[in-house]
Amino acid sequence: MKRDVMITVDSKQEHLNEDAEVVNFITEGTYYKKENAYYITYAESAVTGLDGTTTTLKVSPDSITLIRHGNVSSLMVFEKGRKHTSGYNTEFGMIEVGVIARKLNVEMNDNGGKFNLEYIIEVNNHVTSLTTLSVKVQ
């Protein structure tokens, strides 16, 4: 059964030779369990630069799938030590992005919980950034 929750998102993206980009926010969303995964859904805002986009996180013990629909559409799969490649559709066109999860720690249950994820982003097989993402559901 879906229920309303408060979601805390802390993200830090470090680009090569640039200052880190930090985004922290708290938002309302929904949370539910389906089979062996927990689903977290929320509307993006101007804070993230993704206004008009809905994000769904499918959280399993060994993987996290990030799905975005709206102004920005994307599908990214994170499994520790594995590279996943997907298209990232932006208002400027499609780009191909590879993601490799370096760290993945999931502590979710029927009442909420949290996960921590650290991953590398590659564009055209070149590392462009290192991202850490922490999400807490209450």
Question: Would you mind describing this structure in some detail?
Answer:
The protein is built from no helices and 10 strands. With 138 residues, the chain is an all-beta fold. The chain has one domain (3-136): Calycin beta-barrel core domain (Lipocalin). The chain has a 10-stranded antiparallel barrel. A hairpin with a 2-residue loop joins strand 9 and strand 10 (126-137). The protein is globular, with a radius of gyration of 14 Å.
Key words describing this protein structure:
single chain; 138 residues; mainly beta; Lipocalin; 76% strand
Order of helices and strands: EEEEEEEEEE
Q: Alpha-carbon distance between the termini? A: 15 Å
Report the β-strand fraction as a percent range: over 45%
CATH architecture: Beta Barrel
CATH topology: Lipocalin
What is the count of β-strands?
Answer: 10
Q: Provide mean pLDDT, rounded.
A: 93
Low-confidence stretches: none
Tell me which oligomeric state these chains represent: single chain
Q: Please identify the top-level CATH class.
A: Mainly Beta
Q: CATH-wise, what's the superfamily?
A: Calycin beta-barrel core domain
Number of helices: 0
Going across the biggest sheet, name each strand in turn: 1-2-3-4-5-6-7-8-9-10
Q: Helix amount, in percent?
A: under 10%
